[in-house]
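User: Can you predict the 3D structure of GtrA-like protein domain-containing protein? Sequence below.
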Amino acid sequence: MIAAVRRAWSSFVVKHPELSRFLVFLLISNGVTVLQLALMPIFRWGLDSFTGLVGVDFQVLPVGSQVDGSPYYMFDYAAGPLPAGGGGLAYFLAVQVTLLIAQVINFFLQRNITFKSNTSVWVAAAWYTAAYIVITFIAAAAQGFYKAPIYHLLMTGWGWGATGEVVADVLTMIINSAISFWVFYPIFKVIFRQVPEEEPAATVTR
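Assistant: Sure. Here are the predicted structure tokens for GtrA-like protein domain-containing protein:
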């Protein structure tokens, strides 16, 4: 059975190389997303329970104004527990540490399994880091639109309380991961290239 599946997959790869690569990318990305979903509540719980960082305001890089005239921050984590506050520095660190762990794992899996790249790992890592930083800023700016409404709806509007907070954690992480997913694939195609290996020179015999 396993051998038959391998033969079918090998045949599919030959006939549809780009589609098969995208499917592997999709599978690994979903696995990494599941890891993020598992880690996010753990980090939030630890930082909220054992540090006072939830009470530390982290609102930086104002990029405009809200409808009510208040500043719109790219990283908007007001002090205080959700939904009244923004989770403070504890929420920011929980998100970023979770993303960092997931992306490091994702880097090696995508490079070695999906794209089978043979270019310099250090050059690829440098470009990956630059892309990760840019995407982090983009995702953070987008989060300002949906984070607070989701937590308020699930925790207060629907009265789910702590359960709503967990569900909101999952939803925000899924949205964040989706943004990274669609942006990273074309980037991976560039930084995880396959360079044809030079064939050894033929030995001249006399």
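The chain has a mean pLDDT of 84. Residues 19-191 form one domain.
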